[in-house]
């Protein structure tokens, strides 16, 4: 069974991307529908009940099934810099450069970025941020203190985007069960996607998928019928992470598109499966918060399609295929790293409740992954 599911090859930093995939895929085409908008509305209603949760994922038009394989964004209070930090003349130079950049129009920004051999895609605010980050890096001295400030917090980031059971009009007490567990691994040093993992999961409470769920995700009844239940899939996820030496040799964390995946899907699934919530998934990067805070955009502009569009990128693959969603989220994360963003954990689960991680907390890598114990 394990051999059929195909464990991924051992990861090497410069090796081409590989993917562990679940068996039983069947190519299916789906019609266009407004059901995705309805799902988003349902998730938005849930968010109104839990202010800490992120909004639902955005819902572009459906494409053929993928192959296996408020208001303003909440800003965390920053630690106020010391007076000495800004007494260095380099900060005056940076301020002058920023003022000049602020007066440039979009064509001038693109011309300067092209001259510097930097990416010229994106809206004006993104281009300004990219150019400012470039000049800031150039101006800052390479002292040990500054190197620590500009260095990466993690060696590797695991981008996770679950798909779960759903109905067209979810009852208030509907319990979502994970039916796809994808991970995309990005290297923060080479700024590349280096590996990926994907398996489908057999739901137990509602084993028969709704027509709405099938059309939305592209996951067929045959796929989940032939899959293992969540505890078995999670064990293989842990083995895959251990093979990559995450938490031992390499510092890592998780990243999601909003709070929904960890605070809802994984939290509910662990309770359903009678296992404890895995410690390695207690903290994560909510890329919507990071994106909004870094590019200074309103909350309404932090949905997946909006983030891609403002960065000059297009969605690749099939929306609501978990693996394709994770790959596109990874592209956003990589672009943010290229633009000088320091991605770090900004949310965590404490006693089952979603909480923000204060920006004053020192960044920590996730602990080495282990199989969670059963609930007592």
TrEMBL record:
InterPro entries: 3-5_Exoribonuclease, ERI-1_3'hExo-like, Ribonucl_H, RNaseH-like_sf, RNaseH_sf, SAP_dom, SAP_dom_sf. Residues 101-135 form the SAP domain. Its EC number is 3.1.13.1. SUPFAM superfamilies: Ribonuclease H-like. The keyword Metal-binding applies. Its main location: cytoplasm. GO terms for biological process: regulatory ncRNA-mediated gene silencing; rRNA processing. It catalyses: Exonucleolytic cleavage in the 3'- to 5'-direction to yield nucleoside 5'-phosphates. Keywords: Cytoplasm, Exonuclease, Hydrolase, Magnesium, Metal-binding, Nuclease, Nucleus, Phosphoprotein, RNA-binding, RNA-mediated gene silencing, rRNA processing. Residues 1-85, 351-376 are annotated as: Disordered. Its cofactor is Mg(2+). Residues 12-30 have a biased composition (Polar residues). Signal peptide: none annotated. It is found in: Cytoplasm; Nucleus, Nucleolus. GO terms for molecular function: exoribonuclease II activity; metal ion binding; RNA binding. Residues 360-376 have a biased composition (Pro residues). Coiled coil: none annotated. It holds the Pfam family SAP. Residues 1-10, 33-61 have a biased composition (Basic and acidic residues). GO terms for cellular component: cytoplasm; nucleolus. PANTHER family: 3'-5' EXONUCLEASE ERI1-RELATED, 3'-5' EXORIBONUCLEASE 1-RELATED. This is 3'-5' exoribonuclease 1.
